[in-house]
Amino acid sequence: MKKWFVMTLIVALFVVAACGNGNKGGNEGNTSTNTPGNTATNTPSNNAGGEEDGEEITPEPGAKLLVWESKEERPFVEAIAKEFTEKYGIEVKFEELGAADQVGKLISDGPAGLGADVVLFPHDNLGKAVSAGLVLPNDFYEEQSRAENSELAINAVSYDGVLYGYPRSVETYALFYNKALIPEAPKTFEEVVEFAKTYNDPKANKFALMWEVGNFYFNYPFISTGGYVYGDNGQNKDDIGLNNEGAVKGLEFYGSLKNILPMNSGDVTYDIKKGLFMGGTLALDINGPWTIKEYKDAGIDFGVAPLPSINGQPASSFSGIKAWYVNSFSEYPNAARLFARYASTKEAQLKDFEITGALPANKDAAADPSVQSDEIVKGFLQQFEQSTPMPSIPEMGNVWSPIAAAFSDVWNSGKNAKDALDNAVQQIKDANNGAAAQ
Which candidate among 24, 147, 288, 412 keeps its CA 20 to 30 Å from the CA of 140? Predict the structure, then answer.
């Protein structure tokens, strides 16, 4: 256990500040600017270099915390909260709330002092949270977080150059393969096409490969081989790379795959392909770790591998990073920082993997034998290393519909790829330069 450097002067400052602060949503012992539309600033009173200098952050006297998390993660949160309380004597309560719903609820509950002290959401909601002044920077533990976690994860939970998140887990999709139908995962899409020529039988529902053809989340790999969504690591709304030469070539290749999957894009749904894979007639499925349990329960002997290369280049998938964030309106911001740190260390991430199967963002945790010995998990982590975090700026909301329509036009109607992408990009630019993304 690290030593606590609790100085009488610091305690006195907390007491004086607490007496002068009548706002329940305020921050004891801190200076805070909580104005909607601006990033809140809230610096720990004892942040003189942070933990890297051997200091431990000092929780506010009488601190108690509320944490929001989803139902699926409850076993981990309760386990890590119990450890935290035993170590620091700070009570932690859990309230069930889905990760995707937390920013919206924090917008209404945060300023009123009703929001959780520590929240957890996928990184693509970060821009919205920062723009509304809802979360504090990860300042005291910044150096540790940067050093310990994947660079992809750190970039994803940063906004406008500022680190806000305490990374906890990563998520992307990869290639599932039925070993009874195809013993080894294909390394290239050309291999997939060749396999399909001898395996496909649409009348018998036998297909070499399926993915959600109409969903841009799963179609991004075809853009990734030369194209991109937004420049500057997804932060620059004025730099759109969805219709450059590489993106056009990728979309043209995407369109050619209808030869091995002769179905309309809207007919290749998650449930359809899951049923075929579990039924033993679909050989390859591009899917995420959320499907692992069902496939195991179905008795399928399957493996997971990185996506096949496209046009001779590695295929990058979209990835999401879940991280803890400290509510800028928390009454106990230092205690909240301490919990976010404690619940995101290597040890905590390994515990999360053990309990829920969440893939670690921490580099040492990801390299741990308990993780690497699982071949299925290893396949996802390999794909994550060549993934692209979804842009977190609010303008990402303007991308999904136009680009999905472009892919649909090419797949279903044979539209020229360049024309389809030019049209989509113009719609995105119009939305970015008009009303703010919702």
Answer: 24
Paired strand residues for 389: 319
Mean pLDDT, 10 residues at a time, over the chain (438 residues)? 35 35 34 34 42 75 95 92 98 92 91 94 92 96 97 93 96 97 98 97 96 96 96 92 97 97 95 96 95 91 97 95 97 98 98 92 96 93 93 91 97 97 97 67
Question: Which long-range contacts does 236-239 make (Cβ < 8 Å, 24+ apart)?
Answer: 237/393, 237/395, 237/432, 238/432
Residue 100, Cβ neighbours under 10 Å: how many? 12
- What stretches of 267-358 adopt beta strand conformation (E)? 282-287, 302-305, 318-327
pTM over 0.90: no
Do 349 and 198 contact (CB within 8 A), yes or no? no
């995101």: which residue's tokens? 344
Distance, in Å, from the CA atom of 227 to the CA atom of 240, rounded to the nearest integer, reads 9
Report CA-CA distances (Å) from 301 to 1, 16, 91, 201.
44, 64, 45, 22
Residue 372 CA to residue 385 CA, distance in Å, equals: 14
Strand 91-96 relative to strand 64-69, pairing: parallel
Count the alpha carbons within 13 Å of 223 in the hemisphere toward its beta carbon: 26
Which ranges of 343-416 does DSSP label H, i.e. alpha helix?
346-356, 363-366, 369-372, 375-385, 400-413
pLDDT on residue 100: 81
Distance (Å) of CA 379 to CA 86, 156, 302: 36, 21, 12
Contact 170/360 with Cβ under 8 angstroms?
Answer: yes
Residue that is written with structure tokens 């990374």 in the block: 167
Q: Which domains does the chain have, with CATH numbers?
A: 8-170+320-385 (3.40.190.10), 172-319+389-433 (3.40.190.10)
